[in-house]
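User: quick one, fold this
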Amino acid sequence: MKPARRFLSDRIEGAIGDIYAAATDPSRLPAVLDGVADLLGGKGMMIGPVVRSNLPDPLLFAYASEAFHEAIPDYLNYYVAHNPRKNWLAHNKSAEVIFSDHDVISKSAMNRNEFYNDFLLKNDNLYSLDRVTSKINPCERLWFSVQYSRRAAAPDAQQRRVFETLSTHLIQALGIYRRMHAVRPHEADLLDRFECGAVLLNRSGAILRLNAAAERMQGRGLNFSQRRLGGAGPRDTALLDGAVERAVHGVVTTEAVEMIALTRPGETLPLLVQVLPLRAEVGRLPLSSLLDDVPRVLVLATVEPGAVERDDTRGLMLLGLTPAEARVALAVGQGSTPEEAAERLGVALSTARHHIKRCYEKLGIRRQADLVRIVSGFPRFLP
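Assistant:
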């Protein structure tokens, strides 16, 4: 074997070892992904879900190398709708495909395209080498992309082969990681405490868990087919799909919870459904949130709201708060000052203030009025 080829082979073997090591320690993933990009001559790497939506959702990037961070807001605010790669992927149903720019756009069209000329070149980017897979999460296609500097040539056949090898091992390692973190007994326990119907969905709208009350609504306003949440007919299913998509992409926030009324076949009263976005844990890697199937949406359903009390913290816990944080949040959300909440709960004022700060961070809010709106959305559904 020639020295150059042996050197490349050794680097590939080292990268594969690093990839599997990261499966047990996700904090190593950024360095591993950047190392894969470097081995392929790239500037950095990106990973995200394949979605049709052009909404400015930061979670379109489950991972992006630091070199791309400054360009992401500009991309999300405008160029996401003009990206030929994304638009090609959104309409291409292939579950597994490896491609580069010239597979989806001609060189002459590339020279005229504003995404390439006004965005990529301005940010010292041009070509990419991409792979789409559904092997990690059967409910969602993910894309892996090595991005190249404007000074680099288009990826050649050897780079494609190495990319295919490394991305295959990366897919297997991330699949291992996802399976290792798939079970969360505490979430099932929380759902079972709801007397109303409660369903947890991931970011693609697939059902992760539902409680017994929701199961009893099968055919009575809700339908659960192939892990998808639906209504009694196409109209109601479209209403649910729209509400879930808005919650996932942040159009509906925890400060302004959405409610819809669904038909109950043979019944007069509608099924009232509330769709709440859930936030990932603060400090959690977006990539691990995507791979874990972390719940992104909580759907609550009931027939007769109103006769319920405002003394339960479980809804706030499903939004990511700890029990102690949820108790303080409930008190403040019901109008108490930090001092009154501390006295009511028998904790130090400094402890109450710390919990309030953490609540605001986790819920993505800044004011007590926002917390009041969140808390006031739960009473009609919580037992």
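User: anything notable?
Assistant: The two ends are 71 Å apart (CA to CA).
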